[in-house]
Specification:
By secondary structure, the chain is an alpha/beta fold. Helix content is about 15%, strand content about 25%.
């Protein structure tokens, strides 16, 4: 169950039911519970206590030193419960002495690719960190909470139980339990990608027709339905505008204007 290229410190404790894939590294004082799976290129540094039935995908780093300039090699640790899924390139740091010395991950969590759990943080049972969600030090994510993709959570902040934080949100205050929280969405369309179209060989006439369609959609006083009706009445609109109109009509979530 242990690949010959894996490097395991003699002071590590690995249950015989574990599967350790190619090029994995287990440091000193790592305890690995039964039926854990390390796929390949997984690094777990100690002191760290990992419970049973956890799956670690390639290139994640668990129990690394805290990213804190005050850390001087003190004996701090990381603990993890059971049945967690830790995806590619996730990083989880050990605690610091000033923060209590412990980073703790619960059970049945899903930590997606590139997420980061900073020192002295706590992630509760059934919580989810979506791709590239980032927890600074001393953050608490309570049970069943979801932190969306590309979210950054400030130090000492709490995400309440069963809360949902939408993608791309910067969290600087506590998020209420049971709530939905998201940053303002002010994404706008600023006209036609004319330079890109020229580089792809679009003629000036094709670009002109597309630009006219965008002026009707964005700059007229017509709503989207009215703009579509107006453009459909134009007999010389061309295939590109037809594609644009079809795209809008098939949209299920609405379009950015």
């Amino acid at each position: 169950m242990i690949h010959p290229t894996a490097v395991i410190d003699p002071r590590a404790s690995v249950d015989s039911t574990c599967s350790i894939g190619p090029y994995c590294i287990l440091g000193a004082d790592v305890e690995l519970g039964e039926h854990c799976e390390l796929m390949s290129h997984v690094a777990i540094h100690g002191p760290a206590k990992i419970g049973p039935h956890n799956r670690f995908f390639p290139f994640c780093v668990i129990g690394g030193e805290p990213q804190d300039t005050s850390f001087k090699g003190e004996n701090t640790r990381l603990e993890m419960g059971s049945h967690n899924v830790i995806r590619e390139y996730v990083t989880m740091n050990r605690g610091t002495t000033k923060g209590g010395g412990l980073t703790r991950i619960g059970s049945h969590t899903l930590i997606m690719a590139y997420a980061h759990v900073g020192h002295d943080s706590v992630v509760g049972d059934h919580a989810m960190l979506v791709n590239a969600a980032t927890l600074a030090g001393h953050v608490t994510v309570e049970e069943w909470a979801v932190v969306g993709a590309l979210c950054a959570v400030h130090q000492f902040t709490r995400i309440g139980a069963h809360a949902y934080v939408g993608g791309g949100t910067i969290v600087t205050k506590d998020v209420l339990p049971f709530s939905k929280c998201v940053a303002p969405r002010e994404t706008r369309t600023y006209g036609v990608n004319a330079v890109g179209l020229e580089r792809r060989g679009f003629s000036k006439d094709r670009i002109r027709r597309i630009q006219h369609a965008f002026r009707v959609l964005l700059n007229s006083k017509l709503n989207t339905t009215q703009a579509l009706e107006k453009l459909k009445l134009e007999t010389d609109r061309g295939e590109d505008v037809d594609m644009l109109l079809k795209f809008i009509e098939e949209s299920e979530r609405g379009v950015i204007k």
